[in-house]
Amino acid sequence: MEPAPNPTSLPARCDVLVVGAGPAGSACAQWLARQRLDVVLVDQHPFPRDKVCGDGLIPDAHHALQRLGVHAEVMAVAQAVRHVACIAPRGGRIDVPGRVAVLPRRQLDDILKRAAERAGARFLAPLRFEAPLQEGGRVTGAVLRSAHGTHELRARWTVLATGAVPRALIAAGMCERHTPSGVALRGYLHNEAMRGRIDALEVVWHKRLRKGYGWIFPCRDGVFNIGVGLAHSHARDAAGRNSMADANLRELFGAFGELYPPARELLAGGRWLAPLKGAPLRCSLTGAQLARPGLLVTGEAAGSTYAFTGEGIGKAMETGLLAAEALLEAGAGAGADDAVMARYEAAIAALKPRFDLYERANRVNDHPWLADLLVWRAQRSPRILRRMAGVLEETGNPGNLVSLRGFTRLFLPIR
Questions:
Q1: For 114, 126, 369, 374, which has the most beta carbons within 10 A of its beta carbon?
Q2: Closest CA to 172 of 128, 142, 150
Q3: What is the pLDDT of residues 206-244, one digit of tens each?
Q4: Other CB atoms within 10 A of residue 131 CB
Q5: Domain 80-100+180-278: CATH class, spelled out
Q6: Distance of alpha carbon 127 from its chain centroid, rounded?
Q7: Of the candidates 393, 313, 376, which has an alpha carbon nearest to the alpha carbon of residue 83?
Q8: What is the Cα–Cα distance from 409 to 94, expressed in whole angstroms?
Q9: Topology of 7-56+107-179+284-361 in CATH?
């Protein structure tokens, strides 16, 4: 484990301070360091470190990894997968083809962090963001804490890529919603007997998993990522109560292990490699301000995870790259603050309609019987299967599949 940085050895200033070395932060740091900016990348944990996630890399993640020049390195250690399997409550299944892989975040994030270092970024950990430094209302860096005390690091710009836990957002005055959009629970099992038998990203809907879903994703060497997720954990009912306040993820996980035979077999014959861990999700580009003078918010801190699927790795990297591009193209002259903020906010706004479509598609989690209908129809219609593959590849509209119009089309003659 890396020793805690001593404040006397830390830099006093840099061009850009990136807080959080997950996919968004490391992507942003690498892109900026490529252009010879002095970038300091910090994280509250020494690397490599675990991160609760489904670990699935869908096409948008592959595209971002290629832009970052690490796709071959990632795929050399990832488990390549050919399909996403959608399993409906009554047992119907459709395999949606796509460019998909699985790699635990402990490995993925370390690859991305090391790529940022190779580009010239300085990585320091463990360091926790305590508060922004401010002059005249502009953020001019951050107060960072290590085991040795606090340190002030001044920067022309600070980028918060601190994930779903809102502590840093609150400290920076950027948090608009403290509660998460969703919650998830996952663990790793080794079960040699199941190697090759579960060879797709399996996503399971069922009435006992209502408001969410279960998953099994195959890693390498007979290891499986198994978990459950719940959406809309921040939603309120008519009386203003949190609609998910009584949700118990461990009970949901137990139900998943009972109702889905492959999960039951995996659990019965498997050996836990890591205990079940839970984590919040921030989805749909909501819950935080994106920018203020001297500071940008990116990645899951900005809500870069999709509702409905819970996928967020690719979009985290994409938003991190958008933050870097805004900083690079706006320059440092008069009016640079306004130019950076306007460019970044416009770039995120351009992504928002797609996130809104996933919010609409999230009704499948609320009404699992819709999955029965969709899978039944896709089994009989190449057109529907192509549309599902288009959603995965981001060439199609996920909301259309479960909109009123799309729902009506499911009853039209099969083509």
A1: 374
A2: 142
A3: 999 988 999 999 999 999 999 999 976 455 544 444 445
A4: 15
A5: alpha beta
A6: 22
A7: 393
A8: 18
A9: FAD/NAD(P)-binding domain (3.50.50)
